[in-house]
Amino acid sequence: MDELEIFRRRYDRERRARKEAEVFAETKTRELYETNQALQRLAATLQEQVDERTAELRRIAEEAVAASEAKSLFVGAVSHELRTPLNAIIGYGELLAEELTELDTGGELVSEAEKIVQAARHLHALVNDLLDLQKVEAGKLVLTFSDVDVESVVAEVTDALGAKLQDGANALRVTVEPAARRLRTDELRLRQVLYNLLSNAAKFTREGTVTVCARPALRAGRRGVVFEVEDTGAGMTPEQLGRLFTPYVQVDEVLARRHGGTGLGLALTRRLCQLLGGEITVESESGRGSCFRVFLPAAA
Fold first, then answer.
1. How far is CA 14 from the centre of its chain?
2. What gap in Å lies between CA 135 and CA 141, rounded to an integer?
3. Environment class of 212 (CB within 10 Å of its CB; exposed 0-12, middle 13-18, buried 19+)
4. Is the dihedral of CA 82, 88, 91, 92 positive or negative?
5. Of 186, 192, 179, nearest to 226 (Cα)?
6. Given a cut of 70, is residue 3 above it in pLDDT?
7. Taking the alpha carbons of 291, 292, 295, 296 in that order, is the dihedral positive or negative?
8. pLDDT, tens digit (0-9, with 9 covering 90-100), for 164-175
9. What's the pLDDT at 125?
10. CA–CA dist 150, 214 (Å, integer)
11. Integer Cα distance of 5 and 1 in angstroms
12. Closest CA to 290 of 204, 206, 168
């Protein structure tokens, strides 16, 4: 075989190899193009679905906001409409009780008049809690900070709930440590927090002990006061503790039917503690009682 033949064969092999390479490259290029087109169609479809879903979620969010605003307006309007006649019932009930006492008609009629006043006050407190919770959720609750006499506030709350504690034949123990007697916070909201906690303790405790304690504390570099409200009452299971601060939810439906309530008090209490820069925690054991701890920092 001469050199010319060798060269010709080598040339043919290289030409076939080049041809095969061109065919391979063309095939792969076509496959890549088709794949790219498919990906673009898929991307367009996904983008369309995302746009549709985004629009749907935006519509749902707008409807939820509108429904929440409508609910707030409705609750606010109804609550305000209830407060006026309730104030009248409380006022006339107190006058009736005073007149019956002066007429010396016997304790039974006076007791019935006082029951009217107590029921109206209870409903009035529920209406106030509902309004406050709505304000908190809407970010419209205004706080007023001042130097608060803690010992005086605790005394006012325990005095206000004295009858309720006595109804359950409960003993009350109160301790306010000297270093915890002053705190810069919102006095009205502090009173509300303590009232809700002590009222709950009195409600679910029978022939037991309710303890209120205020002591100085330091949390995360912040000085403040820890308020403890402890009882030897019904207590709660871990499952009940999990839904304790959920608005409008009663942790025990049986006890709720027996003692009343709307599930607003503790939910509002936690929101108020957070607004005041503090926190609320609870320890409880079913059948042995509960202990609520509220830490409120001293406002600057």
1. 80
2. 5
3. buried
4. negative
5. 179
6. yes
7. negative
8. 888 889 999 999
9. 80
10. 8
11. 6
12. 204
